[in-house]
Write a structure and sequence with these properties.
By secondary structure, the chain is of the alpha+beta class. It is built from 3 helices and 5 strands, in the order βαβββαβα. The two termini are 23 Å apart. The site of FE3-S4 cluster has 14 residues, from helix 1. It comes from Candidatus Kinetoplastidibacterium desouzai TCC079E.
């Protein structure tokens, strides 16, 4: 079991989640973060920290976000470690809550 970063993180990347993770399991891409499922200990402390409500426990994933389980797994192999928060993306407020953002994911 793992926690999963989903679509609403794309182009927002607030990174608040990173500061509370006790095992540094977040990985960073250009406009999205993922959780490395091999490292996540399911502590759930990141969930309430995300202003975009983008993090779910694997079993709580909405149907239309289930694809992000494999996306997190795949991209955690190539995205880089991040263990400290940084500024959100410039247009994060504009993108927060937009639908159909998967097409904008930079891998
Ligand atoms: Fe993304 Fe939310 Fe973290 S927008 S970077 S999962 S705080």
């Amino acid at each position: 079991m793992t926690h999963v970063v989903t679509e609403n993180c794309i182009n927002c990347k607030y990174t608040n989640c990173v500061d509370v993770c006790p095992v540094d399991c977040f990985r960073e891409g250009e406009n999205f973060l993922v959780i490395d499922p091999e490292e996540c200990i399911d502590c759930a402390v990141c969930i309430p920290e995300c202003p975009a409500n983008a993090i779910f426990f694997e079993e709580d994933l909405p149907d239309n976000q289930k694809i992000f389980l494999s996306i997190n797994k795949e991209l955690s192999k190539t995205f880089k470690n991040i263990n400290r928060s940084k500024k959100p993306m410039e247009d994060s407020e504009k993108w927060n809550g937009k639908s159909n953002k998967l097409q904008h994911l930079k891998r």
